[in-house]
Amino acid sequence: MSEFFSTYGSLIVSMVLGALLGLSLYLPLMTGQLSLASPGFYALGGYIAAILSTKVFNQSSHEFSIFYLLLEMGIAGIVCGLLGIAVGIPTLRLRGIYLAIATIAFGEVLRVVSLNLEITGGAVGIFGIPQPFPNQISYLWVALPLLIVSMLILYRLERIRVGRAFIAIREDELVAGAMGINPTYYKILAFTLGAILAGVVGAISAHFLNTWNARQGTFDASIIYLTFVLIGGSRTFVGPVLGGIVFTALPEILRNLAQTNGLPDWLAHFLQDGRLIIFGLLIVTGTIFFPQGIVTPNIFNIFNIFTRKSKKI
Amino acid sequence: MSQNISQISETNSGTNKNIILEVRELTRRFGGLVAVNHVSFGVHEDEIFGLIGPNGAGKTTLFNLITSLIPISSGELFYQGVRISQLCCHQIAGLGIARTFQNIRLFGELSALENIIIARHVHTKSNLITGILELPTAVKEEKRSRQKALELLELVGLSDRATENARNLAYGDQRRLEIARALALEPKILLLDEPAAGMNPSEKHQLSQFIRDLRSLFNLTIILIEHHVPLVMGLCDRIAVLDFGELIALGEPSVVRNDPAVIEAYLGNE
């Protein structure tokens, strides 16, 4: 068992972090806003944690306290939330593909700034970020509760007044306005919640990866997170969580498959080196055959007795 | 603003009816086209007010201006004596002006019940924190919204379709669900955009009875756009006729029916 964890610990934590990043993209999408800003906030959160832990909290030689990690997550969340409001107010006036472009630009701005600032370590980045845990799998102590709490919050959110306002705006923004819902307010709220979550995850990732640089949270990353949501399912939070878990693990699974005995050489090579091609094919076919993603809100009708009861009314 | 209020109360002092909605010199231009051209009228409280006119006369545009879905080019709107022409559409909905749409615009992916609960937004207060933590106030509020929505579904005869997705409902049911959704706002003024479109004569007859019932049940002022002239004549207390964006006649059905300008607009000049 311990061997399993030492081999796959890093992957398991990555999967949980992937699920969280999927959720951070799903939040603005609840209001129908295709925002690709999450990687930007993720990068920012990581830099905040990296700078704080290497420059501010790192006075003593003994092990880095987990309390500091939680504090960094809080600070990253607050900073990203405030920046989310500031970025959201102008950009959320844009719709559809224009919002996507503006949020990509936001990520690029952050990337170029971090490449050129001294405090972010320039192109080299920040390395030797102190570890609060003895091994990689232990990061689950922080990441898993965060995922569970986020899922509980989203489960509730989809069933309360605020969440319904989000969904109404996604379905028809004009009509939502005519029903007394302030679309601007709720769009900014959803965008900001996504920014906070991405920032907090970034703070964990910085410690988890031990190093942080401008290659984190680039345009590539935003497309991968988008895959989590679009293929996993964009109509319920279960979709991005499963999408994040599966698509983070997929490259590793393919790599293992390639090592199976008896495979023809070309296939083994394809599985090992062509995994990005497979990834891309899945994205294309997935969006054609599952436009709402693989997991749809019907999943709750299967499990939820209350829904069945209410059908009898 | 207080000056405006006093102005209105002065103009009202002559009649015993209160003007709940006043449209003053309202204009909307789309480029060179003037869709609504200096239109002025007042709608009395508890009145069923008809808005008729040939296709393209600007009736729906006028509705969109009143509910602020599109900005006004010039002119003003007063609701209960207060100027509302600068407000956003969600603020206007919050004040008590609700509407339906000509091309039905329900939240198709959501159930009939959810469609109505969403429209309870302005009458509920729970926020992110109280809602997620299931605090008692939010839970109670949620129950009340649901209860209210079920009552409204019953009123429009859709109780047994509560969990059905709105887009799977029959056309007539969708029209009624839209009315129920608008009523969930507890409006003082209800704007109905062609509520009888696509209905057969007996359904139209039922609908006009239903609209009368709504008025007395909720003390509503109803403004409706309708093409079917007999229905409008039988149902409305007063009628405004639009043609090419201009108000060409205003008054009781019997007066408007015989107005030469209205006859010309509908039948052409011989």
Task: Describe what you observe in this structure.
- The complex is a heterodimer of chains A (313) and B (270).
- By secondary structure, chain A is mainly α.
- Helices cover 73% and strands 0% of the residues of chain A.
- Chain A contains 14 helices and no strands.
- In chain A, helix 2 (38-56) packs parallel to helix 4 and helix 10 packs antiparallel against helix 11 (265-273).
- The model of chain A is unreliable at 307-313 (pLDDT under 50).
- Chain B is α/β, with parallel strands linked by helices and 270 residues long.
- Chain B has 11 helices and 10 strands.
- Chain B has helices at residues 2-13, 59-66, 89-95, 112-118, 128-132, 136-155, 171-183, 201-218, 229-235, 253-257, 260-267; strands at 19-30, 33-44, 48-52, 74-79, 82-83, 97-99, 189-193, 221-225, 238-243, 246-251.
- In chain B, the strands form 2 sheets. In chain B, strands 6-7-8-3-9-10 form a 6-stranded mixed β-sheet, sandwiched between helices. A 4-stranded antiparallel β-sheet of chain B has the order 2-1-4-5, sandwiched between helices.
- In chain B, helix 4 (112-118) crosses helix 6 (136-155), helix 4 (112-118) runs parallel beside helix 7 (171-183) and helix 6 crosses helix 7 (171-183).
- Chain B is globular.
- The termini of chain B are far apart.
- Mean pLDDT of chain B is 89; it is low at 1-15.
- Chain A binds chain B through residues 153, 156-157, 160-165, 167-168, 171-172, 174-183, 189, 235, 307, 310-311, 313, and chain B through 67, 69, 88-90, 93-94, 98-99, 101, 105, 107-110, 113-114, 117-119, 121-122, 124, 126-128, 131-132, 134, 138, 141-142, 145, 150, 159, 162-163, 181, 185.
